[in-house]
Predict the structure.
Amino acid sequence: MKKNVVLIVSFVFLASGLLAGCGKSENNTNNTPTKEPAPTNTAANEPKVNDEPFEITIRHTQVGEAKKFRLAILNDVVKQTEAAIPGLKIKLDAVDSEVNRKEKLRGEMAAGKPPEVFDVFGSPDAQLYAKEGLMLDVTSILTELGMKDKFNTLAPFTYQDKVYGVPIGGSIEGYFYNKEYFEQKGLKVPATLDELEKLAEAIKADGKVPFAQSSKDSWIPLMTTNNLWSYYAGADITYGFKTAATKWTDPNVVKAVAKHQDWVKKGFYKKGELGFEYADMRNQIITGEAILMMDGSWANSVFRDPAQAGDMVGKIGFFNMPPVNAGDKAIVMQDANNGYGFSSAVADDPRKLAAVKEFIKNLWTDEMQLRGLKEDGLLPAMKIDLEQMKSTSDDPLMQDIFKAVSEIGTSYPAFDALVQAEVNTALSMGIQQVISGELDAAKMLENVQAAQDAANATAE
């Protein structure tokens, strides 16, 4: 249809030109005086911009008080994008992160009808959706905008050398802690895992909860477990599960999970953790009930906001989980696996494609990355010098996080970026069974390995 329209329009212009040419020749032949053509309105001769209303949906997960700064940035980018694209109206669809990832987006992808723009994990989610032809290849867009080489990594969103999404920020995992309590009790940041355990014993003896924890969503306790097995078994071991080069039943992985279970048995976590929501463990820190909390660096925004942290603002610090041996470099989960993806159907609509391109252009800038760092404490996904980050935010908690980043010896992506979804499910169920005491570490990991073997067997 588009091709026919172009041909018709071209024919009309060609015919008009021929008629005009004939008329001019005839006038010249008859020596008839000709008048200078009247000035034309250039703007009137330009193609009319299509400003008919159209809509795209952006599915985001900036839900709740803790993410209000990220939502503010998104709202500003939406306004910029709407102003730049005639007729565009952007609908924001807010969904809880876990619900979006594990329920809503999966269902939409199964039906082949995701929103035009959506929050998505890069590996393995975006790669899987890209394999099914459901994700828009944005490689040429990033190249056109001069952004292709401006990211710390695009690996989580890359499938067969093409990019199918853009990371919004980076993160590391470590311990937030009550600095005021440490000072009052004469405690220091531990240099080894053994010192961390002795610290937890001292805190428990003082009547406090050593580690704040919420395990209703299993990814939360698995941050601790993932860090432990990366120390005991090596950061590279998780890469091998999917290829069968390594196994979950490796003695050092068993040792790590057993250590986590031992901490539960020793009462280092508040009883009832399996029923606690994510926000609950942050409240344990804020109220002074607990002293340390393993979480992602993104949680710093809560502790820097008086509306959420109250009197605890300025009293929270951060450090990496310490190594097994004194003097060893820190091994830390560090990635940029959360971002936005785009429906492949956008490629069939030039106006929606233009809107997506404008959205990318407006959201991924140094200005927005540094604003996210300053307002929300989100580490940049784009290449920004550490010294510039330090000067952007002089907040003491952020300075602790910058220090933790500088101390990383080896980094690795979170386990759920490296294993299949069914393995993630088995591990998620397993860690809750370990916490409840239903299974020991060895048996739980046998179950996970069985799920891994089945997943590997069905892989292409």
In short: The CA atoms of residues 452 and 458 lie 10 Å apart. Residues 1-42 have pLDDT under 50 and may be disordered. The first helix runs from residue 2 to 29. The longest strand covers residues 171-178.
